[in-house]
Structure formats: C-alpha cells, structure tokens
Amino acid sequence: MGGAPIDVDVILERDLPVRMRDGVILSANLFRPADEGRVPAIMSVTPYGKDRQRDRLITFFMRLTGVRFGNIKVSRFTGFEAPDPLYWVRGGYAVMLADVRGMHKSQGRAGVLTDRDAEDYYDLIEWAASQPWCDGAVGLSGVSYLAMSQWRVAALRPPHLNAIIPSEAVSDLYREMAFHGGIPETGFVPTWWKRRMMAGRNRQFDFAEDFLAALERIDASRYRASRSARERSGVQAQMPTTTTDMSNPPAITPMLFTRLFTRAQRKIKPPGEVEYSGRVPPLPFPFHFRFFPKEDS
Q1: CA distances (Å), origin 258, targets 163, 230, 238
Q2: In 135-219, which residue ranges form alpha helices assigned H by DSSP?
Q3: Does the pLDDT value for residue 262 go beyond 50?
Q4: Parallel, antiparallel, or unpaired for β 25-33 and 94-99?
Q5: How far apart are CA 290 and CA 116, in angstroms?
Q6: Tens digit of pLDDT for each residue in 27-42?
Q7: Range with the lowest mean pLDDT among 105-109, 213-217, 265-269?
Q8: What percent of the chain has a predicted confidence (pLDDT) above 90?
C-alpha cells in the first residue's frame, strides 16, 4: 500500500483510480490509519471536488447575513459537506471521498443523482470492501447531495454496505427540491447548478443532461420511482436533521424516517448544528461510532 503520511498516524492516498463497470475511471482520495491494519471504510461521493475544502469566502458572507456556525472544529482535509477524515481515521476507520462521474477529476458525463451515479457508488463500495486495508464493512456519511446519493445506492443493496448516515437529505427531488408544493423553485436550484455543477464539470466530457432544461419538462416519475425503492433498501440508517435548514422543508427527514422504519426500529437522536457548517455536526459523533461498529468493538 502506498500513500504519504499527513500526520504521525494517518496516511493519505490521493487520486486513486477506480474503474466502473462501464470502464469509466473515477478518482478518489483515501485516508487510512498508518499501521496498515484492516478497518471499516466510511465513504462519500461528491460533485464539489474531493480536493476542495470549505469555501471561506462564502462562509464569510454567510456570517454577514447572520448565519451561525457554532464552534465546530474540523481538520483542513475535510471536504465540503463530507466527514472529517482525521477524526474518523483516529477512531479506527478509513475514509474515502470520490468525485462523482464527470466532475472534477473523474471521467464520464455528469448528471444529477442518476441511475448511473447510483451504480458507480455501488462499484465504489464493492471496490473498497475488496481492498487490503478494508475489513469488508462499508458505511456512508455526508450532508445534502452527499446524503441524497446514499438513498440511491442503498436501494441497490451492495453486499458490503452496512449502514448509512444521510444528513439533511431530501427523499423526492421532484416534490421536495424542484417543486415545493407544486411551485417551481427558482432561486437555489439554478444558482447551485451554475455555480457548483457547471463550474466543477470535468471539461473533457459533456454533461449527460441539462438539469435546468430538464426541470422545465420534468417527468415526475423519474424522481419518484426511486423513492419506493429507497424505502425497500433494507439498510440501517441514522438520519440527523435540524429545523434550521433554509433550503429544504425540515419535515422531510421525519416523514421519510416514518416511512422507512417500523416503530420498533426507530431511534431519535438530537439534531446538531446548521447544515451550512459543511460537515456532519459533532453532537451525534459518539453515536456515529456505535452505529458503524468495528470488528474489535
């Protein structure tokens, strides 16, 4: 195993090429313990760039508007809306963050939470589980887009996917993101598409779709069909949420929660900080560790 030490106890392997079932290569960063033992993997896939940390300029302007971030402290290797790799590695896990298809350093034609994206996630999970540094157990974690993608892949039931922690994730792109109560969302979605997706596309490849144009002639079944599949995914899910999210109705996560689990299966945990801190908040972390158990625990 290669990689470079970024601290006395953490190894970083950057730009790992992972081949998908159709031959496209996705790029991933891997953080793992320096002792080279076999550990569970915590994984995220992102359209925002696996090498990109939080945007301090945006954070500054959000503070000017009154958004409060609390006292969250994360390492400089923490990706936007992704788990802090140093925190998890020091807890006995490996952390893998990959660019989604067609974005940043990954090959292929990018879309928005497509069926192909879900298949890619499946392949990444199974690839990680087969590596010498992994004990075969994979869990998923992340916020917003990095959470919505978890529902998509969980429906495919990868054999080595043990649990997911989708934080602040809509479950129906049609009703809960693009058309709130049937009313088109014309503020956040176009800005997000232009400034995040279009800006981060791998310029060697075209988009698989024009997402904004697709919204004009949206086929609701495309986004709703996967919802029933997600509700049959059968995977353990911890679902952190808050009442402070400004872009998605705070009732979404509780509604999906009640659809996914029977009363005996439900566990309620207190919410953390505002989503816009860009990380899974620290308050539920001790429970996260219990939710992703290790072989020696």
Answers
A1: 18, 13, 12
A2: 145-154, 173, 188-192, 199-200, 211-216
A3: no
A4: antiparallel
A5: 32
A6: 999 999 998 789 999 9
A7: 265-269
A8: 37
State the amino acid at position 6 in one-letter form: I
What residue spans of the chain are helical by DSSP H? 56-64, 85-90, 115-129, 145-154, 173, 188-192, 199-200, 211-216, 220-230, 252-260, 285-291
Q: What structural domains does the chain harbor?
A: 4-291 (3.40.50.1820)
Beta strand spans in the chain (E):
4-7, 10-19, 25-33, 39-46, 94-99, 134-143, 161-167, 179-180, 183-184, 236-237
What is the tens place of the pLDDT at every residue in 49-73?
999 876 666 677 667 777 776 666 7
Say how far residue 286 (Cα) sits from the centre of its chain: 19
> Which tokens is 257 given?
């929660």
Chain CA centroid to CA 115, Å: 16
> What is the token pair recorded at 85?
């790799």
CA gap 100, 78 in Å, rounded:
17
Q: Both ends of the chain: CA-CA distance in Å?
A: 25
| Residue 74 and residue 82 in contact, taking contact as beta carbons nearer than 8 Å | no
Residue position matching structure tokens 């353990």: 236
